[in-house]
Amino acid sequence: MIQALLTIDDVASKNTPAIVDYLNERGIRALLFAWGENVERRFDEAVYALRAGMLVGNHSYSHPAFSKLTFEEGVAEIERCEAVLEELYRAAGVQRKYR
Fold first, then answer.
1. Which residue from 1, 10, 34, 42 has the fewest beta carbons nearer than 10 Å?
2. 22-38, pLDDT tens digit by residue?
């Protein structure tokens, strides 16, 4: 059996529930990489994705060009998104197994 991991970038958006429903109808579980800013703006859509069985991972807080950041600024972007994702998983009532 061939297996693959589907990843989707830049969630959450207004389209997240439709994407999640489409994938679930076909038995596909995906890893959704989220910007912290997008999760804050579309929190309910991100909660929906988690409760529907998707995984949500860190894609930085504001999706800057990391090559233009200092190391400290890059770490701050990742850590800020981590805080948003911790709150997201808590609100969704889903255990966060992966980071």
1. 1
2. 999 999 999 999 999 99
CA-to-CA distance for 67 and 16, rounded, in angstroms? 29
For 60-78, letters b (16+ CB in 10 Å) and e give bbebeeeeeeeeeeeeebe
| Burial class of residue 48 (count of CB atoms within 10 Å of its CB; 0-12, 13-18, 19+) | middle
Which single residue is written with the structure tokens 């995984």? 55
Does position 57 have pLDDT exceeding 90, yes or no?
yes
